[in-house]
Amino acid sequence: MTEAILLVGGKGTRLRPLTVNTPKPMVPAAGVPFLTHQLARARAAGVEHIVLATSYLAEVFEPYFGDGSSLGLSLEYVTEKEPLGTGGAIRNVAERLRSGPDDPVLIFNGDILTGLDIGALVTTHRESGADVSLHLTRVADPRAFGLVPTDGSGRVTAFLEKPQTPEEIVTDQINAGAYVFRRSVIDSIPAGRPVSVERETFPGLLSLGAHLQGMVDSTYWLDLGTPQAFVRGSADLVMGRAPSPAVPGRRGDRLVLASASVAPDAKLSGGTVVCEGATVGSGARIDGSVVLAGAVVEEGAVISSSLIGERARIGARTALTGAVIGDGAVVGADNELRDGVRVWCDAVLPAGAVRFSSDQ
Questions:
Q1: For residue 126, how many other CB atoms are within 10 A of its CB?
Q2: 315-319: which pairs have CB atoms within 8 A and are 24 or more residues apart?
Q3: DSSP result, 301-327
Q4: CA-to-CA distance for 143 and 284, rounded, in angstroms?
Q5: Which tens digit of pLDDT belongs to each residue from 333-348?
Q6: I need a surface site. Which of 8, 113, 190, 360 has the fewest CB within 10 A?
């Protein structure tokens, strides 16, 4: 397996305001852009050539990763002029592939953190003779996902949209966002128009009698599309619950990058990351959170399960729980922001502006 397509064109709307200035795959998780973890895992599985299908803030990727040689990869970049959907994005980069018609091409989404055995998926594809092989995972509540039932041999029998009633939940298997395509199948996707691989390509192939193989791999899997999931994924990488060869430090309860400054009596736990140039003041307590580059957390602040954007400032004694603070924002001293609160980039919240009484 030497070739892959990585879909990194999404706008990351659910992660705003962190994705206002940064595409979602480039938001740091465990100290490096999330995309770094995916590229490193692909390389560890034997992938050598990867084409990145870019769109939103496409100009960010190549200056950071270059030709990929620092990761032992050959990287190319293709930018969509107009959004083409997952299938359209795959077709749009086909001319950069080096594979023959029957060769396997790995395809994966740029927002999935997974422990998938990539080699096993490729082996399943080769041994089954499939046209497309899909990584499937099992979830406790599949109502928010498309269902993918399979027969006794693992062959896909249907693609079912998000179930609305208990009777429609015929399996707990869902599409986990990683595939192996026969190269000729990629070339058959219509060019120059939006195509959804989930809603058009896969059901269309099935109706034509193509062989779509599912491989259930229920190791670690997480869609990082929401702030809560992104914080959890970063923490899991730091603590070693999620695998990656790209974490820039020892696994443990915290990760502090070399140029960050943390007061000796500050307490960091739960997989917290403090990125380059960030400062954490005396007596601050940070649990399961991400403090991005250049941010400042002042003395006595208490932060839990939150994302603090680049160059943001959190005032003294302020408490954040499940909050997202945009790049350059200032949250003054003695505020309390609870689950779901988002402070936009460069916004200023005065000291003591938001407080909750003890009986609320």
A1: 13
A2: 315/351, 316/281
A3: -EEES-EE-TT-EE-TT-EEES-EE-T
A4: 39
A5: 999 999 889 999 999 9
A6: 360
